[in-house]
Design a protein that fits this description.
Rossmann fold, 6 helices, 4-stranded antiparallel sheet, 6-stranded mixed sheet, 10 strands, 234 residues, alpha/beta, ATP binding, binds adenosine-5'-triphosphate, ATP-binding, binds magnesium ion
Length: 234
């Protein structure tokens, strides 16, 4: 049982998922992907979600990040039932509290690294935040201060991944969702990326990272395994 009701209630639940089911529809045909997932993630935890290709990891991540709606079940984020809040509240929660690192980076090709990092602030800006200064600081944090004007096509895969990480942090989110942040990177660059996540974890961020790489287990507090749309007991 991985639901929040059996966990220590003293620490806040950042993610509390109950009975989550997700199907896709191909024409009239329902294709069930997630089969009733319970998952509790506490504030400050660094959790890896591992499982074979096609097992539903990205689908689950999209549900956690409210990028898509469940077919049934509940997704609670920071104590809020995401099905019960208004679209505006949901947009704020997503914009301010969650930083996304997508599996395929999702950088905008015609924008520079700096502009890509700033992108989330065009729709959501925290009051009083020096966004341009922060974008520069974040690019420095990920080791790209000498590449801020480069477009994604002028960056290596690892550098693009770093831009995506810097962008995920621009609104100072409490929860970071990263889908295969080290996928397709060489081992040295992977270690550098994981050092960035470890540092963010030390600073109290809650991080949920999808990975297929067993080497990454050493960095996290807990591994959640997903198989054919079900979470194993661990
Ligand atoms: N938009 C969609 N429409 C229909 N089926 C989909 C859609 N998105 C995903 N699927 C199916 O859902 C299943 C789970 O996909 P998902 O992307 O969650 O897998 P994953 O575990 O992230 O895999 P990988 O490790 O390859 O990224 C797959 O069988 C996929 O074909
Ligand atoms: Mg995936």
């Amino acid at each position: 049982m991985t639901g929040c009701n059996v966990q220590n209630p003293e620490i806040g639940n950042v993610i509390d998922i109950q009975g989550l089911k997700k199907s896709y529809f191909l024409g009239n045909q329902e294709v069930p992907i997630l089969h009733g997932i319970d998952l509790c993630i506490k504030q400050g935890e660094f959790v890896a979600i591992m499982g074979p290709s096609g097992s539903g990891k990205s689908t689950l991540m999209n549900m956690i990040g409210c990028l898509d709606r469940p077919t049934s079940g509940k997704v609670m984020l920071m104590g809020k039932d995401t099905n019960a809040i208004t679209d505006n509240e949901l947009a704020e929660l997503r914009g301010f509290e969650i930083g996304f690192v997508f599996q395929n980076f999702n950088l905008i090709p015609r924008l520079s690294a700096y502009e890509n990092v700033l992108l989330p602030t065009y729709s959501n800006t925290k009051k009083g935040m020096d966004t341009s200064g922060r974008a520069r600081d974040l690019l420095k944090l990920v080791g790209l201060d000498d590449r801020i004007s480069h477009k994604p096509a002028e960056l290596s895969g690892g550098q693009r991944q770093r831009v995506a990480i810097a962008r995920s942090l621009i609104n100072d989110p409490s929860l970071i969702l990263a889908d295969e942040p080290t996928g397709n990177l060489d081992s040295k660059t992977s270690v550098e990326i994981m050092d960035i996540f470890s540092d963010l974890h030390q600073k109290g961020r809650t991080i949920v990272m999808i990975t297929h790489d067993p080497e990454m287990e050493q960095y996290v507090d807990r591994v959640v395994r997903i198989m054919d749309g079900n979470i194993g007991n661990n």
